[in-house]
Amino acid sequence: MYERACRELNSDQEARWLVEEVASSPWSSALDEVVTKQSGSRFEEMLRRRGEGEPLQYVLGHWSFRALDLMVDDRVLIPRPETEGVVEVALQLLDDIAAPDPIAVDLGTGSGAIALSLAKERRMGEVWATDDSAGALAVAGANLAGVGGWAASRVRLARGSWWDALPDHLRGRVTLAVSNPPYISNGEWAGLDLVVQAWEPLSSLVAGPTGLEDVARVVAGARRWLVPCGGLVVEIAPHQADEAAALAREVGLGAVDVRIDLAGRPRALVARAPRG
Ligand SMILES: C[S@@+](CC[C@H](N)C(=O)[O-])C[C@H]1O[C@@H](n2cnc3c(N)ncnc32)[C@H](O)[C@@H]1O
Known about the structure:
Layout: H1 2-9, H2 12-23, H3 33-51, H4 56-60, E1 62-65, E2 68-71, H5 81-97, E3 103-107, H6 113-121, E4 126-131, H7 134-147, H8 149-153, E5 155-159, E6 174-179, E7 184-185, H9 186-189, H10 194-199, H11 202-205, E8 206-208, H12 213-225, E9 226-235, H13 241-250, E10 254-260, E11 266-272
Parallel strand pairs: 3-4, 3-6, 4-5, 6-9, 7-8
Antiparallel strand pairs: 1-2, 9-11, 10-11
Bound molecules: S-adenosylmethionine.
């Protein structure tokens, strides 16, 4: 299997991942012939899909994000390393706020990567994971079930557009809002990696003519929903740093800052609600 995958995919590392995936499936633990056949056909299917250009993460059906192993398919964006860094920024902000039983929201949760990381890595009161895509929320729900335990019991899923997904009783009570909204412009779309264009959901990536439309919607609602001194963290494209910071100041948020990612590029807009 391994040699064939190496040959067909032209990648030693990917061949190893595919073989490990088949070897670690429950089917391979039994020894009978039927089971071996099932593993073999699963391997053939994965090789075919990868050979057709489908991203490795969708072919494997899961991908790691911080402390999580998340189910992913073409209903959700593949969680990115940059977003792991955005979660790190959000956790530091949460620690600075130091509220007991904090309430966090992850607007545009996709696979649930941000919301589930917050729930797993800190003792949260509630974490609301929202999306306007029913498919994305189904994936987030599956990942929530996978996390299980106390952390999962803190997480609520809600469908709707940005802040509108949240119940009214959360107005003015949110300790921390985090979002990785679509931030690519219509014009930038054509310049994206062809694999991303072909396989990842357009609605996860493209915001509109300027690319800042969804960032602006998330920033605009923050003052209404955050508790006094509550925190906002929004993932942005590096070239959007100045405009995103200006949007946050325009709506009356304070302590506005843009944090850099591991590659040294501006990546996370950070702001705080006024004292009240
Ligand atoms: C860039 S993806 C981020 C997914 C996930 N949070 C992550 O970081 O991997 C953006 C997400 O926003 C969702 N989205 C797009 N438009 C939305 C809207 N109007 N309201 C809520 N969510 C939206 C998409 O369905 C997608 O899941």
